[in-house]
């Protein structure tokens, strides 16, 4: 299971990414092209434009990834791709190219769930969590608390009933007049804000359970925001919003750790790059005496390194599961 380089493609949304991982040498290369500038003028991702740009970029990125790794296509042991969830047209670009490469080289094809990639991303860091652990997955499309018992053994303990956390960040950022994608912009604005100036709800923390709801928080911001808000008020609101989200996530993580007795907490997905969230969860982990594991910030947001790791782990585990070629916009973990 060592020298088994797996090349992976990630094209589920607005990043075209290629990476190569093997068990012996670790991550051999990773490349990425972000479409943020392409979509910014529309205030969100335009699916048709995303698909077309993936087509333009993907072959060049594969060439770069192979070059960086010092490998030819014939040296590969498998090809992995993100099969879903995501934008269907965008997913089909990665799936088709992966299938073509696998067919040409006679290699196994591994379909990877995008959120499995996110939750295994900390495995790319020097200090890795051991199974079983709790994973908080916070991205633009998903908010999940997952019990991770092993590769392919995932149990969803809680999820958002409406907006994902990243979506709440992006919508709130839009209200505050910030560009897309708003999460990192809102976090920067919050740095200048004073804590405690606004009191936003901690949704669903007053009742038992591990599910989330973030759409009301966005509404609370819309209500609190004066039409003629000055920069300081906007920063104060950003800070209080961030604190409300962070506190809500921490409360649910605390509960899930209590319920499972697990000794490790993984935080991944785009919002996992948020500094205040990281600090709050570090407090929680210290207080509980559990290990806290984050991917480096560039592997919190979408990337192919995490898909390469997941694909490699599936092959190494002889749990490649799905050699079928398929894509799916919706796919429970
Ligand atoms: O995982 P990801 O790159 O893509 C999805 O699979 O959705 O997550 C993107 C989300 C966006 O909503 C973005 O605003 C948010 O992650 N995000 C952040 C930060 N960096 C990215 N939200 C808050 N603070 C950040 N520093
Ligand atoms: Zn993602």
Mean pLDDT: 95
The tally of strands reads 10
Radius of gyration: 20 Å
CATH topology of the largest domain: Nucleotidyltransferase, domain 5
Oligomer: single chain
* Euclidean distance between termini CA atoms: 25 Å
- In the residues, how many domains can be counted? 2
The percent range for strand residues is 15-25%
Which residues sit in consecutive blocks of at least 5 with pLDDT less than 50?
none
Largest sheet: 5 strands, mixed
Structural class: alpha/beta
Helix content: 40-55%
Question: How would you briefly describe this protein structure?
Answer:
The chain is an alpha/beta fold and 333 residues long. The protein has two domains: 6-120 and 299-316, Nucleotidyltransferase, domain 5 (2-Layer Sandwich); 130-294, 2-Layer Sandwich (Nucleotidyltransferase, domain 5), CATH 3.30.420.40.
Architecture overview:
With 333 residues, the chain is α/β, with parallel strands linked by helices. The chain has two domains: 6-120 and 299-316, 2-Layer Sandwich (Nucleotidyltransferase, domain 5), CATH 3.30.420; 130-294, ATPase, nucleotide binding domain (Nucleotidyltransferase, domain 5, 2-Layer Sandwich), CATH 3.30.420. It has eleven helices and ten strands. The chain has a five-stranded mixed beta sheet, with helices on both faces. Strands 8-7-6-9-10 form a five-stranded mixed beta sheet, with helices on both faces. Strand 9 (264-268), helix 9 and strand 10 form a beta-alpha-beta unit. Helix 7 (215-224) packs antiparallel against helix 8. The longest helix is centred in the last third of the chain and has 30 residues, at 231-260. The radius of gyration is 20 Å and the shape is globular. The structure holds 5'-O-[(R)-(carboxyoxy)(hydroxy)phosphoryl]adenosine and zinc ion (ZN). Zinc ion is lined by residues 114, 118, 139, 269, 302. 5'-O-[(R)-(carboxyoxy)(hydroxy)phosphoryl]adenosine binds at residues 13, 139-141, 166, 169-170, 181-184, 187, 269-271, 273-274, 301-302.
């Amino acid at each position: 299971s060592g020298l088994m380089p797996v090349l992976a493609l990630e094209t589920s949304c607005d990043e075209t990414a290629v990476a190569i991982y093997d068990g012996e040498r670790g991550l051999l290369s990773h490349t990425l092209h972000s479409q943020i500038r392409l979509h910014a003028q529309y205030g969100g991702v335009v699916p048709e434009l995303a698909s077309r740009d993936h087509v333009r970029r993907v072959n060049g990125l594969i060439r770069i990834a192979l070059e960086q790794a010092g490998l030819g296509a014939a040296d590969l042991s498998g090809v992995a791709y993100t099969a879903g969830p995501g934008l269907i047209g965008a997913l089909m670009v990665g799936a088709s190219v992966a299938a073509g490469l696998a067919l040409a080289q006679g290699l196994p094809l591994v379909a990877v769930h995008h959120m499995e990639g996110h939750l295994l991303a900390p495995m790319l860091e020097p200090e890795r969590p051991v199974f079983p652990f709790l994973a908080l997955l916070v991205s633009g499309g998903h908010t999940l608390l997952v019990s991770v018992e092993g590769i392919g053994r995932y149990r969803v303990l809680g999820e958002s009933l409406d907006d994902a956390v990243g979506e709440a960040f992006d919508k709130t950022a839009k209200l505050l007049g910030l560009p897309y994608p708003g999460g990192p912009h809102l976090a920067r604005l919050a740095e200048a804000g004073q804590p405690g100036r606004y009191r936003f709800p901690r949704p669903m923390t007053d009742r038992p359970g591990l599910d989330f709801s973030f759409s009301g928080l966005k509404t609370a911001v819309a209500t609190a925001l004066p039409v003629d808000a000055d920069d300081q008020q906007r920063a104060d609101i950003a800070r209080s919003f961030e604190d409300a989200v962070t506190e809500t996530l921490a409360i649910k993580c605390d509960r899930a750790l209590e319920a499972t007795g697990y000794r490790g907490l993984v935080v991944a997905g785009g919002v996992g790059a948020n500094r205040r969230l990281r600090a709050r969860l570090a407090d929680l982990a210290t207080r509980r005496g559990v290990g806290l594991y984050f991917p480096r910030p560039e592997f919190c947001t979408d990337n192919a390194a995490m898909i390469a790791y997941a694909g490699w782990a599936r092959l190494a585990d002889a749990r490649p599961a799905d050699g079928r070629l398929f894509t799916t916009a919706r796919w429970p973990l």
